[in-house]
């Protein structure tokens, strides 16, 4: 007897392998998206960029990207570049905060990007708050 064949379909621009009814689907890991977004932040001059793996630690996100930006104009440019990268991947991005506040949060899929001014990054110290998270990448 031949086992049932698997097939693929697109779900929120992630490839999902549809298995036979008795097997669970396997999704492409979000780590690929996280690495792409780190590249976008670095390409747009984000500094001290850190990628943290929150899988198993938080229900609201799988990965955090934390970066420092020099000024309001640069923060706006990085935010816009993240939005464009998300659209290119057919994903939605959600932003909160304003460039002049020193902290902008952008969520894309299971990745949350925190863009900080140097002062706000020191003040909120997210890396210490999420010290149990595994550091995947650090670009200085």
Structural write-up:
Helix content is 29%, strand content 34%. It is of the alpha+beta class and 140 residues long. It has a single domain, classed as Beta Polymerase, domain 2, CATH 3.30.460. The protein has a 6-stranded mixed beta sheet with strand order 6-7-8-5-4-9. It has a 3-stranded antiparallel beta sheet with strand order 1-2-3, with no helix packed on it. Helix 1 (31-43) runs antiparallel to helix 2 (72-88). It is globular, with a radius of gyration of 17 Å.
For this entry, give a set of tags:
9 strands; 140 residues; disordered N terminus; Beta Polymerase, domain 2; alpha+beta; three-stranded antiparallel sheet; six-stranded mixed sheet; globular; 34% strand
Rounded to an integer, what's the Rg over CA atoms? 17 Å
What's the total number of strands?
9
Order of helices and strands: EEEHEEHEEEHHE
Whole-number count of domains: 1
The CATH C-level class name: Alpha Beta
Strand content: 25-35%
Query: pLDDT below 50 for ≥5 consecutive residues: which ranges?
Result: 2-28
The CATH H-level homologous superfamily: Beta Polymerase, domain 2
CATH topology: Beta Polymerase, domain 2
Structural class: alpha+beta
For the sheet with most strands, the description reads:
6 strands, mixed
Mean pLDDT: 83
Q: What's the tally of helices?
A: 4
Oligomer: single chain
CATH architecture: 2-Layer Sandwich
